[in-house]
Design goal:
Layout lengths: L2 H13 L8 H5 L4 H5 L10 H19 L23 H24 L2 H4 L2 E3 L2 E2 H25 L10
Antiparallel strand pairs: 1-2
């Protein structure tokens, strides 16, 4: 199996095709605004929505870097800043999810049409597109687990999954 095929499989597993963990699109499907903003304790625990904002930040930044639109590159003072929420409204929650799905799929399109030389292209310092996409897929899987756990803590996890 070539690297591109493997990455495409990882990429779809993170969004819309169940594998060893549920895909994020399915996990977020029925999450309400209240559930998205819920935190088990005050302090360092992030909400579901904050985690989605964090994932979206890094995906958007990679897309901008790949498209070489450096004037639009996202900046954050530190990693914690990537968890910041917009105004807490149902519309903003829906828009965050929609934007996440859009950016993920745009990166998937780039991956699908990429030749090996495109995958080997540097998008950040010494990091190639293939390394960035691999890292983001692993990052997604990690945070999807957190989102599932937060759903279970709220007793809203549907419970029936193949993995």
């Amino acid at each position: 199996m070539d690297v591109k095929t493997l990455l495409l499989q990882q990429w779809t597993s993170c969004l819309d095709q169940e594998d060893w963990f549920p895909p994020l699109e399915k996990v977020l499907e029925d999450i309400t605004l209240e559930q998205a903003t819920w935190k088990p304790t005050k302090g360092t625990t992030n909400s579901i929505w904050e985690i989605v904002c964090h994932l979206l930040f890094y995906k958007k930044r990679l897309l901008v870097r790949y498209l070489d639109e450096t004037e639009n590159e996202l900046q954050a003072e530190n990693n914690d800043a990537t968890f910041r929420l917009p105004t807490l409204t149902l519309q903003n929650w829906k828009e965050t999810k929609e934007e996440y799905l859009y950016v993920h799929r745009e990166l998937e399109k780039i991956l699908a049409k990429s030749a090996q030389e495109d995958l080997d292209r540097e998008v950040r310092g010494e990091r190639t597109l293939v390394l960035e996409l691999k890292s983001i897929a692993m990052h997604d899987a990690y945070h999807i687990g957190q989102i599932v756990f937060l759903s279970k803590m709220q007793d809203v996890w549907p419970g029936q999954h193949d993995c």
